[in-house]
Amino acid sequence: MSRYFLKQATIEGFRGINNDGDPLVLRFRADCVNSVHAPNGVGKSSIFEALHFAIHGTVPRLEALQDAEQGPSYIVNKFHPGQQATIDLVFASDNATPDISVTVTRTAGGGRTVTSPTGHADPEAFLVSLREDFVLVDYPRFASFVDATPLDRGRSFASLVGLSRYSGLRQALDGARNTRNVNSDLGLSTLETEVTTGQRALAGIASRITASHQEVTGTAPASIDDLAPLKTNVTTALAGIALFAPLLAGVTVMGLDFEAAEQAVDREEGGASRKALDTLNTTVTTLTALAVPQAEIDDIDSLLALARSRDDAINKVGAAAIHALLKDALSVVTGADWHDPRQCPVCQNIAAAPLKDQLEVKIALYDEAERLDTDLRTKAAASAALAKLRQLEECAVLNVAVADRVTPSLAIRQASIATADLQRGKDRLLALETSRTDAITTANAEIATLQTSLPPSLVQVTRTLGQAKQFRDAVREYERDTPMLATKRAKLAKLNRWKAFIGNAYQAFATAEAALANARITDIQTSCQDLFGHLVRGGPDVQPTLSRAQDSEKVDLKLADFFGLRDQSARALLSESYRNAVAASIFLAAATRHSGVPRFMVLDDVTSSFDAGHQFSLMEAIRTRLRHGAAGGVPDGLQFIILSHDTSLEKYFDRLGNTTDWHHQKLQGMPPRGRLMVSAQEADRLKAQAQQYLKAGQIDQGEPFLRQYLEYKLGQIIARLTVPVPPDYATRGDRRTLSTYLEAITNAVALYQAAGRCVLTQQQITDLSTHHAPSIIANYVSHYESGAGTPFNAYALLGVLQSVDDFADCFSWTDPANNQKKYYRALDRQR
């Protein structure tokens, strides 16, 4: 598989980089450490953000802004005439396949297009293949790795070692198998409740079929799975009564005209009494089916116990409104725009440690209360006791007024079920059970009285007819409800199979993912500890150690040996610089083990909070051990691109710049309105730009380029001839004025001349001291630094531009071998 280095980045119109018609061009070498240095505010961060936007399609800093701030509107440079950002990236493979060029454009209106000048078939997919977490790393990524929670650290680590897709899939499977999600997304709890209720109702109907069959035929059916023979038995028993035989000619009990049968009985004798007897028999049958067994009393007692546990959990944490407040506070203190993670956004007090963990603990208590409340509602929905209470309250015989019923307050809804309502439900259930038994006793007494006033035969006929009607009605209900319940059972079985499958799939995948992550940890552990020891030479050998829990994605970061103490928290004990060194060791060790498409790593100001010694140790480790092409380095070394504004590292970059293993570039310019350029590569462009504007009479546009060109040429002379400079020049970039450049050079020439060791020819010395230096100082520097005198005209500035070149020529000689001008090696020697 081809892996790719970043060969070149060309940027125009993006964030702080205006460069209208003259894009910023950064060229990188694959076998070198590439450094880009610029003071704050010059455009370094815009380069990093441009690379992030090209590869990921976002600018994280702008994404974090509030919607009202319209973050995406700041992607395109506000002063670019075309109101379009263009980022062209060139990638070189590590196996000599052709380069790939990808151009990303963004309009001010938000349109993003991705094309490939080299003809890549799918440039967007190629950019997606570069989206590895180690590719673009800024200081916050380093700093947050150690301070992150174990879960966040685990997921960040997974992305570092190429397991981000596995981690994402594990999270997706975890979400899919989550009981709450399954219940809400698939309606499993509701369906389980419906099936339970349907089974209970069907069992009651079956009991009525069995009881009425036995009353009519004198025998209990062995099973009601096949209703046909039961219908035949009841029909035969009714046909055996002479009064009903004519009505059953050609029909079964299911088609019997019961109204005609009742009229036939009425015509015999005792019509009113018989009807009353029939009603009383029906009442006894109905009330008998509504008996409340001890199991249902135990059921409502278990609901009450669960409700009290829920209440205790809520009492431990306070009002429900506090839950929302805590969640809001957590979102604030973990937000990118919150200034201090230890300060409470509500009371403004500052804690000793970040509030995130404390808030998560409190929220977890509320979550436990919510879990208990959800369990309560789920069990209440399937409660046989509450279902029986509803039937008793709706039973016309018991005559419970609608306004007095308890069950409406226990209906399943979003709101919690109050413990007091459950207690009222239990009390009402017990009271109605007493009323039910009393009603049965009363009805049986009335039945006995009526039976004495009717002929015995008619009493039995009336009872048989009533039970037959009960049989018919129960069979109709059974035949209506059985198919619906079967459909729900089949759906529930399918959902439960899915639930079991996704649970097993998650467990199998989680086990495999954890084993793979632990293998990756083992793979980088030694190199990480070795690299950390190299970064903090002379410090304690604490041996940072990563460990991954088997049943979660959490990764703990411990110190194997902290002054004799074992397995101590790195987050709690290490200073900021050491924490950053730990993070750098992990990131770099993981990145160099990676084998994906990108083979480059861009580091933006990652040394911001490193101690000076650790800064240089990190740079040296990258140069000598980790970069691609390092002699004796890691086998799959990376191309490193380092963006920095650190003044101490600037001298390090300058010293190594453009050697065989280091490629250094400096940014200069005036963002966001002016141009941003690479000084080491753009001297001729500076001169050309200055000439272009000055010849057109555009002094305000041309003068800044003249100043940059002068500063570059003077700095070049100092660097090439090793001119001694004042301490302020060497240590502080803000003290480098044009006067200090010129004074350092002219003073050094005078010193070497007085010593008789100056390599410059007499003509060069004369031209330098009597013509070019005075011309530059008198015509430009003194005016520029003091603001004194009349404004320049374009011709005067063109003269200064020529004086700059003439001044530089005084420090060069012509090589007769090729007739080319070269700078002297030093002020006292030619080569």
Q: Termini distance?
A: 47 Å
The tally of strands reads 16
CATH topology of the largest domain: Rossmann fold
Q: What form results from the Cα inertia axes? A: elongated
Q: Give the full name of the CATH homologous superfamily of the largest domain.
A: P-loop containing nucleotide triphosphate hydrolases
CATH class of the largest domain: Alpha Beta
Low-confidence region ranges: 786-790
Please compute the radius of gyration using only Cα atoms: 44 Å
Largest sheet: 6 strands, mixed
Tally of helical runs: 27
Strand order of the largest sheet: 7-11-12-3-13-14
Number of domains: 4
Strand percentage: 5-15%
Please identify the structural class as seen in this structure.
alpha/beta
Q: Residue share in helices?
A: 55-70%
- Known CATH architecture of the largest domain: 3-Layer(aba) Sandwich
Question: Average pLDDT across residues?
Answer: 84
Short description:
The chain has 831 residues and is of the alpha/beta class.
Topology of this structure?
Blueprint (H helix, E strand, L loop, with lengths): L3 E9 L11 E4 L5 E5 L6 H13 L3 H4 L20 E10 L6 E8 L4 E4 L7 H7 L6 E3 H9 L2 H11 L3 H14 L1 H8 L1 H30 L10 H12 L18 H11 L2 H19 L4 H24 L2 H14 L22 H26 L2 H11 L24 H35 L2 H80 L8 E5 L6 E5 L8 E2 H4 L2 H18 L6 E5 L7 H15 L12 E6 L2 H10 L5 E8 L6 E3 L4 H13 L3 H22 L6 H5 L6 H17 L7 H25 L7 H16 L2 E4 L4 E4 L8
Parallel strand pairs: 3-12, 3-13, 7-11, 11-12
Antiparallel strand pairs: 1-2, 1-4, 4-5, 5-6, 8-9, 9-10, 13-14, 15-16
Helix pairs in contact: 4-19, 5-6, 6-17, 8-17, 10-11, 10-17, 11-16, 11-17, 12-14, 12-15, 12-16, 13-14, 15-16, 17-19, 22-23, 22-27, 23-25, 23-27, 25-26, 26-27
